Amino acid sequence: MKRISxxxxxxxxxxxxxxxxxxxxTLLWKISxxxxxxxxxxxxxxxxLCADDAVLSSKxxxxxxxxxxxxxxxxxxxxxxxxxxxxxxxxKGDTTLKDLLSKEDYEKVKExxxxxxxxLPFSMLETYKPILxxxxxxxxxxxxxxxxxxxxxxMEEAKxxxxxxxxxxxxxxxxxxxxxxxxxxxxQQLVQYIDSATTGDNEDKQLKEMFKAYKExxxxxxxxxxxxxxxxxxxxxxxxxxxxxQNWVKKLKDLLPQKSLLIAVGAGHLPGEKGVISLxxxxxxxxxxxxxxxxxxxxx
Length: 300
Fold this sequence. Notes:
Blueprint: H1 4-9, E1 28-32, E2 40-45, E3 49-50, H2 58-66, E4 69-72, H3 79-88, H4 97-100, H5 103-116, H6 122-125, H7 130-135, E5 147-148, H8 150-159, E6 164-167, H9 171-179, H10 183-199, H11 203-215, H12 219-226, H13 237-255, E7 261-266, H14 276-282, E8 286-289
Parallel strand pairs: 2-7, 4-6, 4-7
Antiparallel strand pairs: 1-2, 1-8, 3-5
Helix pairs in contact: 11-12
């Protein structure tokens, strides 16, 4: 079973078929045609990776420089929005993990979080939606001490050119997506995460393979690694992924004719029949891979 928290790193990867040629292994895609005066660019992010790997290629820097605005999933430059995100991370109705788990499982989770350590106390984390609580532990699975958020790296580059930062959706909407997944199911997934981490099964290996595939910009491989998601999540795929992709493309149809954009969203939203690349092509746009790394240079 792949952890839900790992899926979140790629923002809920599509499980539909996707074909990517060896020459097309890239996270950066050019959007043109369909009456556009200037091209826009689409880039697949991962929400946390080793800091040494969070380097932008010259092509990516050029795309940012040429764009009029940068769009993330949410507006990361809106302080009010980001501060408000803290309250949206909590479960509704003052629910805590203790309400969702057996006494034995609750103590297991509490002990694990206390032992692992976190920037936030467990008393706060146990009020968070369990998926988000689990995601705070993912950095421990990375083969490095220093981590980075890809969106932050892109935003810092964009700020050099005074680019406006905007979002395709709001924090409130994202919180609503997670609220649609039963908290008890999320809590059970958290327990399974901890069980796998403490028994040393192949979960960490799978996660490391996912980071490797991202570094190699292999969307097809990412798709294959995430296809075996837990059966309990199957009923929420439309809400977590497909509806969001459709909403974004609908919004982009209005935005793309007006300005040149750099759109940076979770890499999992790009591939698949219902992925953003395919949906844009179905709307008449030409979406082409852009070579995004230089041989011998560690770039993304």
